[in-house]
Design brief:
Elements (H helix, E strand, L loop, with lengths): L1 H5 L7 H11 L1 H5 L7 H4 L4 H5 L4 H5 L11 H20 L7 H12 L2 H6 L5 H20 L5 H21 L6 H16 L5 H33 L6 H7 L3 H12 L2 H9 L9 H18 L4 H16 L5 H4 L10 H16 L3 H48 L10 E6 L30 H8 L5 E3 L2 H7 L15 E4 L2 E5 L11
Parallel strand pairs: 1-2, 1-4
Antiparallel strand pairs: 3-4
Length: 508
């Protein structure tokens, strides 16, 4: 039975899919892009546990330093290629056409995926989360074909796989419902090999798996925190899973109106500076959804199918309901999976070659626009990173001209203010690739010190938050670096004034 089950999936396509991934991410594979937070993740691995991402230390047992280039991308490419093969099997596609490879390109190039991969430490864990959730869907759909112990084992395995996915990144668990729901709808309303009663059972089973997996994830996260003695730093843990019944309900009601806006931004609102990208996204998605709904046999089936498609386009933003804030692009990690399954089903239900060719052409345009967005972000990153490296070298030169460092000693640095980085390339909102470490000193004075450490200037250490507050008045009469007098030594601490406070936020 197991052998017949796995024969449904076209794993022979995996090498070709990996080649497409390599082509799309060749720049990232062959360059080391440092992003905001990488400067901390390279040194403080316990931060992953504080964020509730307990899969990271487990992965680090095999791959201790996650902030590295090349090989992590190659591992992700293998994992995501296998994931897509599983998705193809779920919709019954084993004889692959050019469309299926273009759809894979749309899946991995959609900006939410590069937004996750911009964090070097996330690359392997997020690849595992994609594979785990897709395997969970496979096992959930296969469970009804078995009875007793075999069915229970498959469902328990699905729970554990979803739990692992959430342990990599909380919103990754949403990949599971956005794939399961449309596949069940396809088998029920469009292929007629699943009865309505069985479909309802599958939906309830899927909901139960998500609830149990979320509860188990939360328990494991708090166990890691308790054993390690680390204070939780994640709003997901404090607000979402451990909120009281009343506060959770109030929070849910307050965000019900706002959360649909999240997917509006992901699919349209964030791409005004990127030419026709927003139109190509909406056109491909709308056309695909229309093809699927049109293929439903009855009005009731069409309405149910449309409702399910609308739901899976909203689910990737569900974390807004518990976060309390607008979520960055990277948290919509389930969005590419939702779009991928919609595109695959649209092609599957279309019998007209003209319609299929039209859909393929729309997806080609979709991929081109994704490549354009990602290319501009890489250009942004290249310019900013060289800018930061030059400034880091210049800062070190000026500091060392005033400070004498002996072997084994540390130089304590305190930075005040920040310097903005500008270039001609459009910046995708909420994406940190291309953000300047020198500019991000506005959020924490120690960030630039960690960046100096990561780029080879290991003899620096940052002041504590208390020391930073105490020293702040001393900057009032200092000029901004690199002017003379912008670096001072006070009580053994080297003060560097990078700029004045941000007039908009008051941050320094």
């Amino acid at each position: 039975m197991a052998e017949r089950m796995w024969q449904r999936f076209p794993f022979q396509a995996a090498p070709f899919l990996f080649a497409i991934f390599f082509f799309l991410f060749s720049y990232e594979i062959n360059n080391f892009n440092l992003t905001i937070d990488d400067e901390r993740h390279a040194f403080f691995t316990q931060e992953f546990v504080a964020l509730g991402r307990w899969l990271f230390p487990i992965v680090q047992l095999v791959w201790p330093q996650l902030v590295v280039p090349q090989a992590t991308y190659l591992i992700f490419g293998i994992l995501i290629s296998i994931t897509y093969c599983l998705a193809l099997g779920l919709v019954g596609d084993r004889e692959l056409k050019p469309f299926h490879f273009i759809c894979f390109a749309a899946f991995v190039a959609f900006p939410a995926v590069p937004a996750q991969l911009e964090y070097a430490a996330h690359i392997i864990p997020i690849g595992l989360s994609f594979l785990c959730t897709m395997l969970a869907v496979v096992l959930t759909l296969d469970a009804p074909a078995h009875a007793g112990k075999q069915r229970l084992l498959r469902l328990l395995a699905a729970v554990l796989l979803c739990t692992v996915a959430a342990g990599a990144y909380q919103s990754a668990i949403l990949i599971y419902p956005v794939v399961l729901a449309p596949v069940v709808a396809y088998r029920t309303f469009l292929r007629d090999d699943c009865r309505y009663a069985d479909a309802i059972k599958l939906y309830l089973t899927g909901l139960a798996i998500v609830v149990v997996a979320t509860t188990l994830y939360s328990a494991i996260a708090w166990l890691f925190l308790a054993v390690s003695g680390i204070t939780p730093a994640s709003d997901y843990l404090n607000k979402a899973y451990m909120a009281s019944g009343t506060s959770a309900l109030d929070h849910l009601i307050a965000r019900l109106v706002e959360f649909p806006r999240g997917m509006y931004l992901v699919l349209y609102g964030w791409w005004w500076d990127f030419g026709i990208a927003r139109y190509s996204f909406v056109l491909a998605i709308s056309f695909s959804a229309w093809l699927i709904v049109r293929a439903a046999g009855t009005w009731l089936a069409a309405i149910a199918t449309a409702a399910i498609l609308a739901a899976i386009l909203l689910i990737p933003g569900a974390l807004i309901l518990v976060s309390g804030t607008e979520m960055p692009l990277r948290t919509f990690v389930a969005a590419p999976a939702a779009l991928m399954i919609i595109f695959l089903l649209a092609y599957r239900v279309s019998s007209s070659q003209f319609v299929r060719n039209t859909l393929t052409a729309l997806l080609v345009l979709f991929v081109i626009q994704c490549m354009y967005i990602n290319s501009t972000q890489q250009a942004q990153a290249w310019v900013t990173q060289r800018h930061d490296l030059v400034l880091a070298g210049a800062l070190n030169h000026d500091i060392m001209s005033l400070v004498e460092v002996r072997e084994g000693e540390k130089v304590t640095l305190d930075f005040h203010g920040f310097q903005e980085s500008h270039n001609v390339f459009p910046r995708a909102p909420t994406v940190l690739l291309g953000e300047s470490f020198v500019e991000w000193t506005r959020n924490h004075h120690g960030r630039l010190v960690f960046y100096l450490n990561l780029t080879g200037f290991y003899w620096y250490e940052a002041t504590t938050d208390e020391e930073h507050v105490r020293l702040k008045p001393l900057y009032s009469d200092m000029p901004v670096w690199p002017r003379p007098g912008s670096i001072r030594i006070v009580d053994g601490v080297t003060l560097v004034k990078l700029g004045s406070c941000d007039p908009a936020t008051g941050k320094c």
